[in-house]
Every structure is written in C-alpha cells, then in structure tokens.
Write a structure and sequence with these properties.
Elements (H helix, E strand, L loop, with lengths): L5 E2 L3 H6 L3 E5 L2 E6 L3 H10 L1 E5 L4 E6 L3 H6 L14 E7 L5 E11 L5 E7 L4 H11 L13 E4 L4 E7 L3 H5 L15 E5 L9 E5 L8 E7 L3 H12 L4 E3 L2 H10 L34 H7 L6 E8 L10 E4 L2 E12 L4 E9 L8 E6 L2 E8 L16
C-alpha cells in the first residue's frame, strides 16, 4: 500500500482486523475481511456494515442553493420535502452521465436549509471542479443567488449498515423512530452513546445492496469509536464488517449500476434506463438540450440484466452475441451468492433488450447460453409482521 493513497478514519481498524486493502479510486479501502461470499450472505440474512467514507460529500447552502442545484442536476430538488433524499444524475453538455448522486435536504440547528450531495469517490474531483465552474460569482448579480459550497468529505466518515437487522441494531443508538422513516428519507440524529461525545450525524434510509438499511455520516473524530460500538452491539445480531467485494456482488444482484461500468460519460440516461431521473422542463441544466434531442428517438443500446444458463460467470468486457454477430458487451458480472447462478449487466442492441431474449456470451473463448431477464435479479423478502401480544 503506497503512502499516496488517501485513508478513511477507519484505515487502522481495517488493517488491524485483517482486511485485504486495495487501491479504490485513490483510497486505501478494504476489499474483504475474510470471505466475500460470507460477508454477502451475512448482509442478506442479518446485517453488514461497510466503510464508505471514500464517497464524496458536498454541502450546499445559502439562499441560491436550491436554484443552483436545479440548474446542475437532472432531477428537480425544489420539490424535496425536509429530510427527503433523491437519486439524480449530473450530465455533461452532450447528455453523457458525469456521475450518479444522492441529494438530501435538511435544516441546520437554526432552521436554515442545506443540501448534501453524495458523489462517487472516483468522480469527486471532477464534480467539485464542475461545481466551481458553474457557481455564481461571489458577488451575486441579484440578492438571493448566493451559494455556499463546501466539500466536507474529509471532515466526515460514512458507514452503510445494511440488512434485515439494520433497524434492530441502530434503533437503540439514535434518537429518531427508524420504523417510521420511509425509504429515501433521512434525519439529523443524536447518537445515544458516550462514544459519540454528544455529537450527532445524518442518517438516511438508503443503500446500495437491495436490502433494507441505512447510511450514517458522523464526524471523522468520532468515526472509529462509533464504528466499534456498532460492531460490538451488532455481534449478537449477526453483524459482520463487509468490504467492497461484497458491496459489489450485493449491488449487482440488486441490479444497481456502478459508475465506470454501467455509467460513463459516453452513456446517456436513456441507454441506462434512467430516463425517470431527467426533468427536461423548467430549469435548464448542462446537457438538457442534448437530452431533449436524444429523447426523440429510441437509443441504439439498452442496459439489461443477463442470466447465464451454465455455471461459468461472465466478467466485464465479455462480448455478447446473437446469430454469431456481436451485439453488446458485459459491463459487470459475477456468480450470485444468493441466487447460486451467474448473472451480469450489459448493454445490447435495443431490439434485443426485451426479457426472454436469448443470447450468447463469450466467456474466455467459451460461448455460454444466456437470456435477458427483468431487473433486479434479487428482491428482498418482506419481513414477517411482529406478533401482537
């Protein structure tokens, strides 16, 4: 591990607990602690906790923040209710996807609104530069345009607590009712443990696994102490630390795109099946005109889910064929630990993108039979109701 890699506040904990550390987007991150499959299945069946402090957190406040974000993101933020979180995109002027992000709307202790935009670690510098390029001048032309922008990534840590026992683990530790918190909503919480040193954080019911769960942001100074409390309290519930390896297999089963694989600046939202994120009337944002043009015709390719009928998993870059013609490419693939079969995401010609379409995938020179299937591959089962005494 080189000294040039950035380290999260939990780096020493990961190393001390035997994590296999890798370079991910310039950060030293745990790929796995033991078995990726065991970490994956523990998250599906109980609970997993993952350090995602490498994700960028960008804060926007000031009277012009809402309009500024409306003119930056593809999805409108003005209609966000307090504590609501929304998935959106940032596009370039050609309509290509620069990043997929989460934007949350909160109030500070004085009742003043602010927004937190979570960006992918690999795109953080690019998006920060893009923000600075589009910010209004310090002396805004009209009162009410002022925007205060802060990159708070290094000031905070961020954990993903995912799985059917996530509520059971977190509820004793925070001062809000988690059962009533809706998906894609959040809250500013006080952490009810001495390790938090009377500090709080932001908790949202979001995740990247297909399971119920939460993402918790806390100050970097208390991050390790809070993490260790969660590990200790989660032990009896089956909690395990999960690395980026399990995070990837979990998100793939859930059919969630990964930037750099399913999403790039050469791919537009219509190809990726993300047209619902594009609000093309009202505010003008970079790429809106291009998207209006692209909307007029079917995309040449579409992102699809693929199930391979054999046992050999496909990997990124494997060609997809139909009638001996190359018609697409695999962008992500794995052997699903939950479903016990190979699954993949990939782009194929639009006319071949309907579920049931038979294809072939070239896996290291072996042509494997495959079929297009609906996404997601995995849907979490509903938890049984709690019996009434």
């Amino acid at each position: 591990m080189t000294n040039e890699l950035q380290k999260t506040p939990l780096y020493e904990w990961h190393v001390a607990h035997g994590a296999r550390m890798v370079d991910f987007a310039g950060w030293a991150m745990p790929l796995q602690y033991g078995s990726i499959v065991q970490e994956h299945l523990a998250t599906r069946n109980a609970c997993g906790i993952t350090d995602i402090s490498h994700m960028g957190r960008l804060r926007f406040e000031g009277p012009g923040a809402a309009v500024f974000l409306a003119e930056l993101l593809t999805r409108r933020v003005g209609g966000l209710k307090l504590n609501q979180v929304r998935y959106s995109l940032i596009t370039n002027y050609e309509g290509g996807i620069m990043d997929d992000v989460l934007v949350g709307y909160y109030h500070n202790a004085h009742g003043q609104p602010f927004y937190v935009v979570v960006v992918n670690a690999a795109n953080r510098k690019k998006i920060v530069d893009w923000v600075h390029r589009h910010l209004p001048p310090e002396r805004a032309e009209r009162p009410g345009q002022e925007v205060v922008f802060t990159d708070v990534t290094r000031l905070w840590a961020m954990f993903a607590i995912q799985g059917p026992r996530a509520v059971d683990l977190l509820q004793p530790l925070v001062d809000c009712d988690l059962e009533s918190m809706k998906y894609y909503n959040g809250a500013q919480v006080r952490i009810l443990h001495p390790a938090a040193k009377r500090q709080g954080g932001i908790l949202s019911r979001t995740g990247y696994t297909g399971e119920d769960g939460f993402e918790l942001s806390v100050g970097a100074s208390i991050a390790r102490a809070v993490w260790e409390v969660l590990i200790e309290m989660g032990g009896p519930l089956g909690l395990v630390p999960a690395g980026l390896g399990a995070r990837d297999t979990l998100r793939l089963e859930a059919g969630m795109p990964l930037y750099g694989h399913e999403l790039t600046e050469e791919i537009n939202p219509f190809e990726a099946g993300l047209e619902y994120t594009c609000y093309l009337t009202g505010y003008d944002f970079p790429g809106r005109d291009a998207l209006l043009t692209l909307q007029q015709s079917l995309p040449a390719k579409r992102l699809v889910g693929i199930e391979l009928l054999g046992r050999r998993p496909a990997r990124e870059g494997c060609p997809i064929l139909s009638n001996e013609e190359r018609v697409g490419v695999v962008t992500s693939g794995t052997f699903s630990p939950t479903l016990r079969k190979p699954i993949a995401l990939g782009y194929v010609k639009t006319e071949l993108s309907k579920p049931g379409q038979e294809l072939l995938v070239d896996v290291r020179g072996h042509l494997e039979q495959a079929v297009v299937v609906p996404l997601p591959f995995y849907r979490r089962p509903k938890r049984p109701p709690v019996p009434v005494e």
